[in-house]
Amino acid sequence: MLFLSDFYKNKFGCKVYKIALDAHCTCPNRDGTKGTGGCIFCSQSGSGDFIGTSVFLKSQFEEGVCLVEKKARGRSGKNKALFLPYFQSFTSTYGNFEKLKELYLEALSFKNVCGIAIATRPDCLSFQIIELLKQISQKFFVQIELGLQTSCEQTGKFINRCYTNDDYKNAVSLLKKEIPGAHIVTHLIFGLPGEKKSDMLKSVDFVLDNFTEENFFGIKITNLYV
Prior knowledge:
CATH topology: TIM Barrel
Strand order of the largest sheet: 1-2-3-4-5-6
Shape: globular
Number of helices: 8
Number of strands: 6
Distance between the termini: 30 Å
CATH superfamily: Aldolase class I
CATH class: Alpha Beta
Number of domains: 1
Strand content: 15-25%
Radius of gyration: 17 Å
Oligomer: single chain
């Protein structure tokens, strides 16, 4: 098992900083396609709370780099470092395909970028998006972050995520088949209402059951807080 920072360092040979970006998307359980209100744990910014204030992608990236360098006390400037543009807020594969393609490619053109990370829902991976990410993966590192949160279907309904465990399993299977080099990261939340320790561990086991040792994957665990 590797922590994410060690994983990046082993892969790229240096420190890698994720830079949160906003593709100005929404979600199907916000716009009425599947529901309204969004997942109950999600903030008004679609969990993109550390994204720069500009509406322009390059400015967001530059703000993010400045923030990272300030937190790192200039280490990224003195030592070799790379950046991973991270489309974080809302569902970053949900929207106009041509516009999303333009944003992804723009992010990959920024200085010292080593790849791209995209946060999305398992039910929002269209054929066009899969094909685009497959093409990108031939030249760049691609990290796809899938929100699962829990494998308990009852909890999933309570938090209004509006997709099922089967949606997740199908998405993972499709990604492994079509983009074998992609790094698939699953998001889980510990401490969701009504869940016990055993429920949280079952969610971890559920994720592990969808991968093998040969797969390129990770798990991101967030504690629920109000």
